[in-house]
Amino acid sequence: MFILHRRLPLLARTTFICNSMEPAVTTTATTSSLGGSSRLAALAQQLRMYKPPPSSTFDEAEEMQADQESAGKVVSQVGFQESMTPVPKDPERFRPKRAAVLICIFEGEEGDLRVILTKRSSRLSTHSGEVSLPGGKAEEDDKDDGMTATREAEEEIGLDPSLVDVVTSLEPFLSKHLLRVIPVIGILRDKKTFNPKPNPAEVEAVFDAPLEMFLKDENRRSEEREWMGEKYLIHYFDYRTGDKDYTIWGLTAGILIRAASVTYQRPPAFIEQCPKFKYPKMVEKNTCMP
To answer: Where is this region: Disordered (predicted)?
Structure first.
């Protein structure tokens, strides 16, 4: 985990410290009274205690001296916690729409933790054919982000919300066009109760992958790019299941790297190398950033 230990002055650069910690979840696979394995019960308890760091606060509406259009392109390719990105001069105009995605974790047959993913329909106008997490934009009737994520998952892949135990949310990420995406972590206690029914208008395929994969350097490649004189990496995870090959990258990969780091309580085995954004006047103590 990368922790910012002090408040930063206006437009200051940051230095991060990497703390390696042992996973807090056990590997026991006995049945618990709450349904599912005792490992899932322990994981749910662990994740409920997680509190995302506060978003950075702004004492004044000051321009961040960064090209917003260029920043938006970088955000759409990589995906960052909201606190890392520049904001326009007038914060009243910076009101990104809210969305939520579901990181649905379950225990595989071999005792590993796995996450449900989708391949978007090739007929969609945006991000067609790409791998994503189930989710979408919030609606007025949604009482919280958990409801948004589980409602969208039901609409996209037929996942009954009653089967998912929503345990926590991660820091907001910004995606293309500065859409504010809230990653919601839910536990699927019994995978056998879920029979995927993908909505053909939105989803081409439903599959799952080991969550720990997003902390490992195996089957990972990266592409170095440059923005405003700073180099950064876009991560790609290649994954094969059955006779299908998938590539998980960009915002989805960024969210899953963060989710895996929180779940296993350790940083990835590779350097993430995000762009060095210029920060707002005040950044709260202990703000987590990749």
So the answer is: 126-148
Is there a contact between 1 and 261 (Cβ–Cβ < 8 Å)? Answer: yes
Supply the pTM of this predicted model.
Answer: 0.74
For residue 8, give Cα distances in angstroms to 14, 84, 136, 287: 8, 12, 33, 11
Rounded CA gap, 107 and 40, in Å? 7
CA atoms of 153 and 99, how far apart (whole Å): 12
pLDDT tens digits along 84-112: 555 444 444 445 689 999 999 999 999 99
- Find where tokens 């995606």 sit: 175
Question: What are the domain boundaries of the chain?
Answer: 92-215+250-264
Torsion from C-alpha of 246, 216, 290, 277, nearest 10 degrees: -60
Helix count and strand count (H, E) for the chain: 4, 15
- The CATH code of the domain at 92-215+250-264 is 3.90.79.10
**What is the pLDDT averaged over residues 115-138?**
85
The half-sphere exposure of 264 on its side-chain side, counting CA atoms within 13 A, is: 21
The torsion angle over the Cα atoms of residues 161, 166, 170 and 173, rounded to 10 degrees, is 10
